Amino acid sequence: MSALRILVPVKRVIDYAVKPRVNKAQTAVETAGVKHSMNPFDELSVEEAVRIREKKSYPGGVEDILAFSCGPPKAQDILRTAMAMGADRGIHVEVSEKDEVEPLGVAKLLKAVVEKEKSNLVVLGKQSIDDDSGQTGQILAGLLGWGQATQASKVTFEGDKVLVEKEVDGGTDVVRAKLPMIITTDLRLNEPRYASLPNIMKAKKKKIEKVSVQDLGVDVTKRLKTLKVIEPPPRQGGGKVEDVDGMIKKLKELGSI
């Protein structure tokens, strides 16, 4: 039974506590001068990878936890955060702020890294809170031909098999698969740790390998074009009715029944 080589993709996004604003050109959300942090779902992924090692959940042990990010130079900050949480090293594919890579492009980059690093488990957030695409994990599984378990709320091991529990309407669903595989994380999986000051200092000495899209031989040409970005219209206030008959009359007027 070979040890786990875990790849954990992380993304730099606008901090979840910041209210997004559309830029003046209405082409995208304003990012200049806005606080950024690690995508919350990716924090769960890093935490889960580190817990698998600490709890010795997998009989073969964990050989390596590799954090990966594709983004502008400042994406190195979240790679340092991931390493302060327990990742061993990082890979940064640097692209400019304006050239954000679509999920298909990210999945292609991850496939190249998986093959280069001989990873056998990829743990990533189910979605990023900026574009909410929720596609990268599934596309990566398709490109690699691996099994996948999405929206994990619990991960356990039975020998060389992985059991992933996730919440569904009316209960839970358990997926069993063999390695290598893809797992995407959901909010109830764990509670990410805060990086301690000693670990933050240690993370500064850990290696971040900088590679380019060309180094990995991947085509990340955009296939989608954003025509316009606008704020959602203000929500209209509701109306009051006196009784059930009044409610039915109002619903009929609105064409709801």
Order of helices and strands: EEEHEHEHEHEEEEEHEH
Tally of contiguous helical segments: 6
The count of β-strands is 12
User: pLDDT average, as an integer?
Assistant: 90
The strands making up the biggest β-sheet line up spatially as 7-11-6-1-4-5-12
Quote the beta fraction: 25-35%
User: What distance lies between the first and last C-alpha atoms, to the nearest angstrom?
Assistant: 60 Å
Q: Helicity range of the residues?
A: 25-40%
Shape: globular
Q: Helix/strand/pairing class, anyone?
A: alpha/beta
CATH class: Alpha Beta
Family: Belongs to the ETF beta-subunit/FixA family.
Subcellular location: Mitochondrion matrix
Organism: Amorphotheca resinae ATCC 22711
Subunit structure: Heterodimer of an alpha and a beta subunit.
Plain-language structure description:
This protein is α/β, with parallel strands linked by helices. It is built from six helices and twelve strands. 26% of the residues lie in helices and 27% in strands. The protein has a seven-stranded parallel β-sheet, with helices on both faces. The radius of gyration is 21 Å and the shape is globular. The mean pLDDT is 90.
